[in-house]
Amino acid sequence: MTALPATMSLAIHSLYSYPVKSCAGIRHERIRVSGAGLEYDRHWVIVDDRGIFMTQRQHPRMVLIQPAPQPDGVWLKAPGQPDCFAPVTGSDRAAVPVAIWGTETVGADQGDEVARWLSDFLGAPCRLLHVHPQAHRLASMRHVTQWIQTHPDWPQSFLPVDRHAFAFADGFPFLVTNQHSLDELNGQLADGGHDPVDMIRFRPNIVLQGLEPYDEDHLAGFRTAGLGFAFVKACARCPIPNVDPRTGETAPEPGRTLARHRQFEQGVLFGMNAIAALPDGDHWLQAGDEIEPEFDF
């Protein structure tokens, strides 16, 4: 097991958002947070000509698209392409149905110009949707309810269950990982003669530090700055961590090594899906914020 530095505090190590689902992520020192996730996180999604959402699983070049969200839209940059600005439209547009892993929601089509830009770069016809004002997609009621029922010291702060709405993330508004779990994995990769990988391959929102490797398996959640985060479901990993975010190329690692060490009944696990309980008002998270982990023993 990787030894932790004596001075390592229990804190937020880093923060990431992914404004366009499955495109490049953005690292933040400080970012606004709500029950729906980090600001702008997965507020846009790319769909194919059948209206099915697209990801790096089938289109690894998506990771080379770099979004820069603005209050009135999003700038998109990609190698060999002129920059493209997609202004937010939607309040007066029809709600376009889109299913994200079996849960229904709606988006607003962002027009032909950005659709052509994305189609040219990805080599497949596609369109960009922004989360529609009518959208109200909830985290898994089953997992949230089960967590509340089994953690009687916390539940009132996470009620009502239907408050945990979010945009186009896979299943929950937050994904939380542990920096020292990645250190452990990178040590295993090194033992096999493989290069280390960066945490952004696992596409977390909140990365914690100061915990032992895979301590997150044993946490009910954590608190920071008066905010509570509940770990409601372990994250089963898909092949996306095998996509190099610098090149868009795929390889067998780190997935192969991770599978040898982290295979469970639920799948190959790394990180925890989470919901948040936030008091009324404006809230921010910052790298370095101290955390109070709640162990689930």
From the structure above, extract its key features.
about 15% helix; four-stranded antiparallel beta sheet; about 300 residues; M1 Pyruvate Kinase, Domain 3; nine-stranded mixed beta sheet; mainly beta; 4 helices
Helical content (DSSP H or I, runs of 4+): 10-25%
* SSE order: EEEEEEEEEEHEEHEEHEEEHEEEE
State the total count of DSSP E strands.
21
Shape: globular
Measure the end-to-end span.
21 Å
At the fold tier of CATH, the topology name is: M1 Pyruvate Kinase, Domain 3
Q: Approximately what portion of the residues adopt beta-strand conformation? A: 35-45%
Oligomeric status of the shown chains?
Answer: single chain
Q: CATH superfamily, please?
A: PK beta-barrel domain-like
- In the CATH scheme, the class would be Mainly Beta
- The average pLDDT value, as a whole number, equals 94
Output the structural class: mainly beta
Number of helices: 4
Q: In the residues, how many domains can be counted?
A: 1
Task: Indicate the low-confidence ranges by residue numbers.
Answer: 1-6
What CATH architecture do you see? Beta Barrel
Largest sheet, described in full? 9 strands, mixed
Rg value? 19 Å
Topology:
Blueprint (H helix, E strand, L loop, with lengths): L10 E7 L8 E3 L1 E5 L2 E2 L5 E5 L17 E5 L2 E5 L6 E4 L8 E5 L2 E7 L2 H11 L3 E6 L5 E2 L2 H10 L14 E2 L7 E5 H13 L14 E4 L9 E6 L2 E10 L18 H7 L1 E2 L2 E11 L5 E4 L5 E4 L2
Parallel strand pairs: 14-15
Antiparallel strand pairs: 1-2, 1-15, 3-4, 3-20, 5-11, 6-7, 7-8, 9-10, 10-11, 12-13, 14-19, 16-17, 16-21, 17-19, 18-19
